[in-house]
Amino acid sequence: MRSRWERIISANMEAIQVAGRNAPIFRPRHGGFVWVMTGAGEVPAPPPNMERQDMATRGGREVEIDASDPDFLLLHKTMGVMEYTHTIPWAAITDIVFVITQVQ
Which of these, 5, 1, 58, 51, lies nearest to 33 by C-alpha position? Predict the structure, then answer.
């Protein structure tokens, strides 16, 4: 399960090499954002309301994904001065949605 999600993440996100790490950290491509969906839902969640989307595309939040752990996807979010780290079991991921917006 992990290798499938790793391939999808590396194909759709920007890999950032960090000194002292063997595996890269992934960030959404410029102007884009990502949703990691968990649970048993078969239909993707609706898109966010416009205020949330505007904040995401203007750099109001930073998201980094670490796919190097064999058991968990590590999702680190920075929103303003608040920081969150989510440890998501690979088997719990049902979908990952990548939204790439055109920045003009």
Answer: 58
CA–CA dist 100, 104 (Å, integer): 13
- Residue 83, phi-psi category: left (phi > 0), alpha (psi -120 to 50), beta (remainder): beta
Question: Of 63, 67, 42, which Cα lies nearest the Cα of 52?
Answer: 63
* Residue whose C-alpha is closest to residue 48's, from 39, 59, 35: 35
d(CA 28, CA 2): 19
Residue 11 CA from chain centroid, whole number: 12
- Inter-residue contact 62 to 85 (CB < 8 Å): no
Q: What is the pLDDT of residue 77?
A: 85
Q: Dump pLDDT digits (tens) for 16-66.
A: 998 988 889 999 887 788 888 887 655 555 555 545 544 444 445 678 999
| Number of domains, the chain | 1
Domain that holds residue 75: 2-100
